[in-house]
Predict the 3D structure of the following.
Amino acid sequence: MQWNALADRASTPNPFYESWYLLPSLRALDPHGDVTLLCLEADGVLSGLLPVRRETTYYSYPFPNLRGWAHANCFVGAPLVAKGYEVAFWRALFRWADENAGAGLFFHLANIPLESSLYDGLREVLAEQQREAALVHSEERAMLESELASQAYFEAALKAKRRSELERKRRRLSELGEFTITRQEDAAGIEEWSRRFLTLEQASWKGRAGSALACDQANETLFCEALSGAAARGRLERLELSLDGRPIAMMTTFLTPPGAFGFKTAFDQEFARFSPGVLLQRENLALLERPGIDWSDSCAAEDHPMIDHFWRERRTIGRISIAIGGRLRRAGFAAIARAEKGTML
């Protein structure tokens, strides 16, 4: 499939726009077919891809716009673009947007990595076309990127007192029963594993708040289908801590060399005094030694109370609004950008 080949050649990895994640997303969350899949072909080969939807509002404002589609469980909005085609992709995208603006006042992109060749290509085309654009929001996500081995990184990231405390909690867990750590990369037992994850997450505070995946049928279906697809493509790592066979902490990571992306984590709050989430992240540092993986995006919110103290590197993610269409439409965009006080690019 050309889509999978494009993902392997992408200059900026994005698992959320790979076929095994985006197709289940569309089935579960776009039942009316409102999303358009824009594709760039070069010499008959798929070289760029971005899902786009027409929106009637811009966050809380009544401004219609064209937008790269990114739902609540899509943590990166970077188009899939083959290396060397970044400039060609942006040129083609803006030409399409100019010609198909409709009621849209501007084009909006969310969750864009700002330190990437894809972003550099965007800046180049904006300057080339003298097209106004504004960085309207940016944040620093926790990221893992180091030449250190996992143990050395652990020692550098946490003070000796904190490390000793974690080791003590791990020993106490082991005293309660058989404490095991399981890491899987194949598709064996993926359906049962997914079910156990959903059950564990729903039993936590997320279930009580109504934000657990299993609280919404569409999100539950997306999770199960995406994990199965990722495992079949060799794009998934499952990590689990268990006590006497009972899962107490579980996490999923998408593997898209040279990067990795944290997806979902759940832990049993009955064992909260043992910090199972932190113990899980301690084991997750093994990503530092994984062949083919140079860095990992936590996909966590800025200033996350746990991961920000553990992962020391940062990845800058931004939201960008871009002028499209003719002179009057662009003048309207400029007024909106000034009111929003974005940084002009």
About this structure: Residues 249 and 280 are 7 Å apart (CA to CA). The chain has a mean pLDDT of 95.
